[in-house]
Design brief:
Aminoglycoside 3'-phosphotransferase, Chain: A, domain 2; 5-stranded antiparallel beta sheet; 11 strands; 34% helix; globular; Protein-ribulosamine 3-kinase, chloroplastic; chloroplast; plastid
Length: 329
Amino acid sequence: MVAHVGLISLSVAFPSMHCLPRLGFTKRRPFAMAALSDDPVQEWILTEGKATQITRISPVGGGCINLASRYDTDAGSFFVKTNRSIGPSMFEAEAIGLDAMYKTGTIRVPKPYKVGPLRNSGSYIIMEFIEFGASRSNQSVLGKKLAEMHKAGKSEKGFGFPVDNTVGSTPQINTWSSDWIQFYGEHRLGFQLKLARDQYGDSTIYQKGHRLIKNMAPLFEDIVIEPCLLHGDLWSGNITSDKDGEPVILDPACYYGHSEAEFGMSWCAGFGGSFYNAYFEVMPKQPGFEKRRDIYLLYHYLNHYNLFGSGYRSSAMSIIDDYLRMLNV
């Protein structure tokens, strides 16, 4: 979801997203240990983070949901996100997703260190600070590494995730299911359609969308769908490279799902031919990939409709109508 925040300002924006960086911190002098009881972030950095002093705190732009900062210390740098309006559950889910991707040992992601509540209200997450390179990630390397993550990250529990999380600021339900079509229909498309009906009174898209859900099984015929670990929100603002040029992915909305669902934000990701060629060398393309592609775009168009308004309704409605005609229902 394009409103997510990254580790460093990516200078990537879509005019219709209405998101501006939130730059709220000013530079400060090194913090003394006496301040520990007032700030759990500093407390962790100056104890478990093995720093003896924080030399600088600087704002990091790029998102509109959380406040992001870089903490420079004598033990290295840390990346910190805070939010004064929410409890730790959102950041806990993010940390679990980052940790799951990190443990595959494939594509680079920031290692999460600590999640907790702020004093008085709000929450924070502390993670590895990654120095970004000057260029975007190499498309073929990105495709290969992403496919390696999908191949390595498997679940014996089926489709879902240990916790619910968010895609942008929208709740994402991850209750386990052994049936991908049921999971995707209920917890992805169905959930978004209900939001649209409840928020906008849009009974037309709700009814047509549910006709599609009830009749979409033929799109998945003659393929084997394994639950793969997905980033879940892979658009250009969540993709970058480190100083060595290796791809880095950020701000996940992880779950175990059909690998093709990872391309649902491709309209905002800029994936080219070299990306897909490299990806399919590791994870071979399955029959009917092209006819299923838009069913995965639909989830994210619906989410953008619910988050940002009617500008995205026509794209979602067009996909639904096209599938209803294709399936003759």
